[in-house]
Amino acid sequence: MAIVATPLNSSLRIIVETGVDENNKPIYRTRSYNNVKTDATDEDLMSVANQLADIQSHPVHAIRRTIESELTEVV
User: Fold this and answer.
1) Alpha-carbon gap, residue 46 to 48, rounded angstroms
2) Quick one: what percent of the chain has pLDDT higher than 90?
3) 11, 19, 27, 59: which has the highest count of C-beta atoms within 10 A?
4) Quick one: 46 exposed, middle or buried, by C-beta within 10 A (0-12, 13-18, 19+)?
5) What are phi and psi of 44, to 5 degrees?
């Protein structure tokens, strides 16, 4: 049987480093942007994320995209 993944929603997360703890390890916070179009390309999202990163007061550690999909079996 074949499995089909149907995208339901997508989100963009920008992880920023807000400082260090008492052990000198980085502290991270996540800026989340939900309801991103599922058909938006990764290149477009990266472009938007870089523009958002430019206006952050903290350095960006990572940029992530999350896609939630529904899996169905095709007979």
Assistant:
1) 5
2) 97
3) 11
4) middle
5) -65, -45
pLDDT at position 6 is 95
Residue 32: C-alpha distances to residues 1, 21, 43, 63, 73 (Å): 36, 23, 18, 10, 31
Q: Contact, 4 vs 69, CB < 8 A?
A: no
Q: List pLDDT tens digits, range 7-40.
A: 999 999 999 999 999 999 999 999 999 999 999 9
Q: How far apart are CA 21 and CA 51, in angstroms?
A: 28
Mean pLDDT of 39-67: 96
Question: Using CA atoms, how far apart are residues 36 and 69, in angstroms rounded to an integer?
Answer: 13
- Helices in 1-75 by DSSP H: which ranges? 42-54
